[in-house]
Amino acid sequence: MKAPMRDANTFNFAQFPDAHGRFGEFGGKYVAETLMEPIQELQDAYAHFRSDPEFVREFETDLRDYVGRPSAMYFAARMSEAYGTQIWFKREDLNHTGAHKINNAIGQALLAKRLGKTRIIAETGAGQHGVATATVAARLGLECVIYMGAEDIERQQPNVFRMKLLGATVVSVESGTRTLKDALNEAMRDWVTNVDNTFYIIGTVAGPHPYPQMVRDFQSVIGTEARAQLLEKTGRLPDAVVACVGGGSNAIGIFHAFLNDERVALYGAEAGGDGIETGRHAAPLSAGRPGVLHGMRTYLMEDDDGQIIGTHSISAGLDYPGVGPEHSWLKDLGRVTYDGITDDEAMSAFHDVMRFEGIIPALESSHAVAYAKKLASLYGKDKIILVNLSGRGDKDINTVAKLEGITL
Amino acid sequence: MSRISPLFEQLRTDKRTALIPYITAGDPTPGATVDIMHALVAGGADAIELGVPFSDPMADGPVIAAAHERALVHHVGLRHVLGMVQVFRQSNQHTPIILMGYQNPIEAMGIAVFAERAQAAGVDGVLTVDLPPEEANTAAGIYAAVQIDPIFLIAPTTHADRIRIIAKLATGFVYYVSLKGVTGAQNLDTQALAERVRAIRQDCSLPVGVGFGIRDAPTAAAVGQVADAVIIGSALVRIIAELGQGDPATLQQKVQAFMTEIRSALDRS
Question: What is the pLDDT of residues A106-133, one digit of tens each?
């Protein structure tokens, strides 16, 4: 694919998406006609409220008092010693509900309330976004329905129980591959049927415009904080920022504040599964091609007929055949480098974080740490690599035990 | 010109409402589709909507989504669907065929390549569910160049200004989705429908087909009072789901009988 022309001195990443919701050729609004009007309403409402001081104040207050922001910036001393470079963690794992997902759920729920919607729906893979959504719905007294693939329900039981305790209805999705993409299909079907009273909180920077922009904006607090925190603690910007990419919300969240800092290298770790060469992975940017799914044009994993193919990852949160359209654009522009991290590499990094730093990282975030480990030798001990520790791994303990043949 | 506009002109002269059944290509098996298409025509279908199986049929309800899954068991893709149309055309040159599906399989083939092959196979219209007019300029131009009608949906939520945008791009007919929701939804309000169809006609001169929620002869007859075409999908696909595992001849007979029943109700009303 040819790289689009871009003058690094004048190009401003913050000006995208354009008025049509496009990032270059990616993004857009590929939905059935019934959803066009509700999406336009959402777009107008979001355009209004994102610059409404009262809305912004309420969002920021909730992030501070309810989520516990700003999240910590932590120097991983023993890991830095072992890897031979300076590793810093942005501690999204310390947020209320244990991951970055809550930032976006709060933003969208506040919007739902402003729009007078009484019912919230969401899709979830690993269950982190489902838990975050059920949490904010409980707090605002809104009805909440979470769609989750039957296969994911089996492997993420603790999160399913959490959602139920929070008062949400969890609907098991039996269609297709019974994972995240099918949960998204089912949530879309619900939304198209109940648009009058229902707000659909999409959990990642995917879907039709304005979702990729809106979710990015709500998550960009990660990078805004991280940039200021590192400047304060080290007096300089990082040399590299690394994040894992499933749909890509934590990655966009931390990348966004650095996009115009051309000398900060950005890296996205996709789920390499058993290895890109085996075909058993969830890495559309590394091994897919552009297509249309879930309301957007983006890189997808598909077969020759254009059917979306099943994905594989140790991590349910990365197990998605598409990716947010802004990532597709950043890949083609060459601004972010994406590569697959295998299940084994992620598992090894998971243990490193626990043994060196006393932190249980989510398996998703472990992919980012593994990528940082690979990059360490390129950078050396004087350089700073900032890793987004997007979530905590308590939810993954059963998966890890099972993989290692241990019965709890 | 495709076969669609001449069909509607003829029907207007005859004062008849078009009956357009929908089936998913490859359901229950790839070998059954062309015979079912002929049975539909024998039962009184004026045109056929042929669904292109897709792994993620987001806008379809459980009945048609299951049909996509049954077809995908046999790996039926766009190439095979075009092959079925070609075989159908060997013995039927007059019944318009509209492919209905999602954008990704078309893009995987390449829109221009698809348009050329579809035209050669004998396709008359293409309805891409997830390609609203805002995203359809390129595709509509390519289809127009090969005399294939781009068919667009109009929803209960579509405002008059959008109907005018759709009317500019659409040819053949427009498809009014009579309910909010996915295919196979229930509870059609025929009086509200009549008002909506009147409103659409103010901004769009094309024939108006109505689908979603038409499940039997009485609902078809009621819709036939106000629409130029009645589109039946889920009710038909349900018959295929029930009888698909059995004798193909029985399935064809049932499909034809179901069409005949709807056809008679339409012609009486």
Answer: 999 999 999 999 999 999 988 999 999 9
- pLDDT for A2: 47
CA angle A369, A374, A379 (to 5 degrees): 100
Is residue A100 within 8 Å of A253, Cβ to Cβ?
Answer: yes
> Which H helix or E strand runs over A369?
helix A363-379
Q: What string of H, E and C letters represents the secondary structure of B247-258?
A: CHHHHHHHHHHH
Count of C-beta atoms within a 10 Å radius of residue A172: 16
Q: What percent of chain B shows pLDDT beyond 70? A: 97
Q: B49 catalytic, yes or no?
A: yes
Q: Determine the Cα–Cα distance for residues A140 and A61; give it in Å rounded to an integer.
A: 15
A113: exposed, middle or buried (C-beta count within 10 Å: 0-12, 13-18, 19+)?
Answer: middle
Q: Are A114 and A106 in contact (CB under 8 A)?
A: no
Please name the amino acid found at residue A175. Answer: S
Contact present, B188 and B210 (Cβ < 8 Å): no
A95 contacts A386 by C-beta, under 8 angstroms = no
Q: Do B57 and A185 touch (CB under 8 A)?
A: yes
**Could you tell me the pTM of the whole model?**
0.96
Of the candidates A133, A86, A84, A126, the one whose C-alpha atom is nearest the C-alpha of residue A112 is A133
ipTM of the complex: 0.94
Contact yes or no for B183/B127 (Cβ under 8 A): no
User: Do residues A127 and A100 touch, judged by C-beta distance below 8 A?
Assistant: no
pLDDT band for position A336 (50/70/90)? very high
- The shortest C-alpha distance from B136 to chain A (Å) reads 9
The 10 Å CB-count burial string (b at 16+, else e) for A228-254 is ebbeeeeeebbbbbbbbbbbbbbbbbb
Domains of chain B (ranges; CATH) run 4-268 (3.20.20.70)
Distance (Å, whole) CA B240 – CA B244 = 5
Q: Is B69 on the interface with A (CB under 8 A)?
A: yes
Q: Is the Cβ of B101 closer than 8 Å to some Cβ of chain A?
A: no
Nearest to A279, CA basis, from A245, A306, A313, A305: A313
d(CA B86, CA B97): 11
Q: In which residue are the tokens 């089936």 written?
A: B23
B233: nearest Cα among B196, B158, B163, B181: B181
For A31, the closest of B105, B130, B166 (CB atoms) is B130
Q: Sheet harboring A295-300: ordered strands across?
A: A22-23, A26-30, A295-300, A289-293
A362 band by pLDDT with thresholds 50, 70 and 90? very high
3-state SS string for A330-347: HHHHCCEEEEEEEHHHHH
- Strand order through the sheet with A143-149: A169-173, A143-149, A119-124, A198-200
> Which residues from A are below 8 Å from B106, CB to CB?
306
Distance from CA of B251 to the nearest CA of A (A): 25
